[in-house]
Amino acid sequence: MADIEIEIDGNVVTAQAGEMLISVTDREGISVPRFCYHKKLSVAASCRMCLVDVEGAPKPQTACSTPVNEGMKVHTQNAKVKASQKAVMEFLLVNHPLDCPICDQGGECELQDVAMTYGSDMSYFSEGKRVVVDNDIGPLIHTDMTRCIHCTRCVRFGNEIGGIAEMGGTGRGEDLKIEPFLQEGITSELSGNMIDVCPVGALTSKPFRYALRTWQMNATPSIARHDLVGSNVFAQTYKGKVRRVVAKDNDNVNETWISDRDRFSYEGLSHENRLLKPQIKLNGKWKEVQWNEALEFTVRGLANQVSDNQANEIGALASNTATLEEFYLLQKILREMGSENIDHRLDIKDLENSITLDSNIKLTELESIDYGLIIGSNPRLEQPMINHRLRKAVLAGADIDVVNVMPFDFNYRINSENIISPYQTATILAEISKSVLKSVHAKNYLSNVSARDSAQSIANRLLTADNSVIILGEHIINNPQAISIAKLISEIAQQTNSATLNISATSNSIAAEMANFVPGQGGLDANAMLAAKLKAYILLDIYPEYDFHNSVKALEAFGNNTFVVSMNSFKDKVISQCSDVMLPIASFYETSGSHVNIDGKVQSFAAAVSAPSESKPAWKVLKVLADLLKLQGFHYEDSTQITSEAVNQNRQKATDERPVSVIAEAKRGIDVIYQKSPYATDVLLRHASALHATKIGQVHLASMNKSTAEKLQVERGKKYLGVPVMVTESVANDCVFINARHPIGGKS
Amino acid sequence: MIDKFGKLIEDFSLSELRGGMQITAKEFVNKKITVQFPEERTPISPRFRGLHALRRYPNGEERCIACKLCEAVCPANAITIESHRREDGSRRTVQYDIDLFKCIFCGFCEEACPVDAIVETKIFDYAFLDSRKGSVMTKERLLEVGDNNEKAINEAKAQDAKYR
Ligand code: SF4
Ligand code: SF4
Ligand code: SF4
Ligand code: FES
Question: Which of B62, B63, B65, B67 to mutate to test the interface with A (most CBs of A within 10 A)?
Answer without folding.
Answer: B67
